[in-house]
């Protein structure tokens, strides 16, 4: 038998196996478009705007449907009711983390974001408690954000009102807050180690949100062997983790269990307390990944939201004017904003929520998985099946948010728009249920304190007429990024802080 015949037979067998496997697995799963052998539904999806494709499929197959990304099924939940039913009403069953092969290769199942089971619970509990109780007897996280806000003002002053792209400066501030929480100290914006860390974090987010990464995660075995940006991402992960591990080693040498300085110290103290437990999740490898997760999840997301916020405020000068009026009334010009101010600033609070709703930063959330076989809406979803939850379908639901594609702070004000802030169960910018983002509290704090400090000190001046400002995301695969733009920061409050 010649090699060509063997190859043809092998491919034929693989094709038949793929068809059999897909057909046998589809019987009790939710409905969905018919997949092609091996590649699944990939040709039926707009890889550059997956959320648009999900919306189209939901109109045909309903709020719960199945897609094949390669040979494995993925169940998609579209709309508030389906997402709530899964992540809140059946939170335990949907509490697994879905597979992202490239991230698994980088994280090895450690840390918070991409761990599972007991490890995930331990790391999540530690992180939540540490971030919540951080600063007992020391500087609180709020004080660290306020300190960084003052440094940000000084950097913006150096622009002297000249046109600038705010991307770099707005990325420095949240990254430095995370540095302060994890490493104890902030860095000068020109510090080379700080710049290297920021460069790699920024590069990884952009690579991770590219169509190439979506292809990698569907065909990891094939793509890994090829050259491409996934190699850069993995190297960046290694470099970031090596830098963090060096910091951990330095902390171990100077650790004072009675005087924790930062998150690393808190983890190392917990590690000492857990010495008698075997096995313990409190290892230096897990600490490295927890810190890496905080940087990855807390830096780029907050800086992107800040950058998008300024763009939307340039587009809506009447909104900016009302926020500045509230800042003047509640905070004034001669002290730093604090979190207590937010309860007295309902319009600003509504604007912050509307910014996060409108930009839809993580349109498809991070993938979940079911922890065991589950009957869900008369369908049987097997254990380990990946679950995609469309946050776009919740944040842009026209029943809850009239004209959802329009930026309108009134979405979070009471029906009479008399000025009272109105909460919404549909506000799921940070997911919901058991997988709600660990850093949600810090994100709200960072956005409020940094943005109000900027507006307290500067007038935002656009280089073009507000009606010509373009706000559509530059990318919409894993994360949404604002288009590149420039503005001028005109100092209005000398010496306020």
UniProtKB/TrEMBL annotation:
Q: What is its EC number?
A: 1.14.14.1
Is the keyword Signal assigned to this protein? Answer: yes
The text of the family note is:
Belongs to the cytochrome P450 family.
Q: Does the keyword Glycosyltransferase apply?
A: no
Q: Would you name any one GO CC term?
A: endoplasmic reticulum membrane
State the protein's name. Answer: unspecific monooxygenase
GO MF entries: heme binding; iron ion binding; oxidoreductase activity, acting on paired donors, with incorporation or reduction of molecular oxygen, reduced flavin or flavoprotein as one donor, and incorporation of one atom of oxygen
Q: What is the annotated localization of this protein? A: Endoplasmic reticulum membrane; Microsome membrane
Q: How does it sit in the membrane?
A: Peripheral membrane protein
Q: Give GO terms for biological process.
A: organic acid metabolic process; xenobiotic metabolic process
The cofactors it requires, by name, are: heme
Query: What UniProt keywords are attached to this protein's entry?
Result: Endoplasmic reticulum, Heme, Iron, Membrane, Metal-binding, Microsome, Monooxygenase, Oxidoreductase, Signal
Write the signal peptide boundaries.
Answer: 1-25
**Residues annotated as binding heme:** 437
Q: Which PANTHER family match?
A: CYTOCHROME P450 2C9, CYTOCHROME P450 508A4-RELATED
Q: Which Pfam families match?
A: p450
């Amino acid at each position: 038998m010649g090699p060509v015949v063997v190859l043809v037979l092998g491919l034929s067998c693989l094709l038949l196996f793929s068809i059999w496997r897909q057909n046998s697995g589809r019987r009790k799963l939710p409905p969905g478009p018919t997949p092609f052998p091996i590649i699944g539904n990939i040709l039926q999806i707009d890889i550059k705007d997956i959320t648009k494709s999900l919306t189209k499929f939901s109109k045909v197959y309903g709020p719960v449907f199945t897609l094949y990304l390669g040979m494995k099924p993925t169940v998609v939940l579209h709309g508030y009711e389906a997402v709530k039913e899964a992540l809140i009403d059946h939170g335990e069953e949907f509490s697994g983390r879905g597979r992202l092969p490239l991230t698994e290769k980088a994280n090895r199942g450690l840390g918070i974001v991409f761990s599972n089971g007991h490890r995930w619970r331990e790391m999540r509990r530690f992180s939540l408690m540490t971030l919540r109780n951080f600063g007992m007897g020391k500087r609180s996280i709020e004080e660290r954000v306020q300190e960084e806000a003052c440094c940000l003002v000084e950097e913006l002053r150096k622009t002297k009102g000249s046109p600038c792209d705010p991307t770099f400066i707005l990325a420095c501030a949240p990254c430095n807050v995370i540095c302060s929480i994890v490493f104890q100290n902030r860095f000068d914006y020109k510090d080379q180690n700080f710049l290297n860390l920021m460069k790699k974090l920024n590069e990884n987010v952009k690579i991770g949100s590219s169509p190439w990464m979506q292809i990698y995660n569907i065909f990891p075995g094939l793509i890994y062997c090829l050259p491409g940006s996934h190699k850069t991402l993995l190297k960046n992960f290694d470099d970031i983790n090596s830098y963090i591990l060096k910091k951990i080693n330095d902390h171990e040498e100077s650790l004072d269990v009675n005087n924790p300085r930062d998150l690393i110290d808190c983890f190392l103290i917990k590690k000492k307390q857990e010495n008698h437990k075997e096995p313990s999740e409190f290892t230096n490898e897990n600490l490295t990944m927890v810190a890496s997760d905080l940087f990855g999840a807390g830096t780029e997301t907050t800086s992107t939201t800040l950058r998008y916020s300024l763009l939307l405020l340039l587009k809506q000068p009447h909104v900016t004017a009302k926020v500045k009026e509230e800042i003047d009334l509640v905070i004034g010009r001669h002290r730093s904003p604090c979190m207590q101010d937010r309860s007295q600033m309902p319009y600003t609070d509504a604007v912050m929520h509307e910014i996060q709703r409108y930009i839809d930063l993580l349109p498809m959330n991070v993938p979940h998985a079911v922890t065991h076989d589950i009957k869900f809406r008369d369908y049987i979803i097997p254990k380990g099946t990946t679950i995609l939850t469309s946050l776009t379908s919740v944040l842009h639901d026209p029943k809850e948010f009239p004209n959802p594609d329009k930026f309108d702070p009134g979405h979070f004000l009471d029906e009479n728009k008399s000025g009272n802030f109105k909460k919404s169960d549909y506000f799921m910018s940070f997911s919901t249920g058991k997988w709600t983002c660990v850093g949600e509290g810090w994100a709200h704090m960072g956005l409020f304190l940094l943005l109000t400090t900027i507006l307290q000190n500067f007038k935002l001046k656009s280089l073009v007429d507000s009606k010509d400002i373009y706000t559509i995301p530059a990318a919409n695969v894993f994360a949404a990024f604002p288009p590149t733009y420039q503005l001028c920061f005109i100092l209005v409050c000398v010496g306020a802080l």
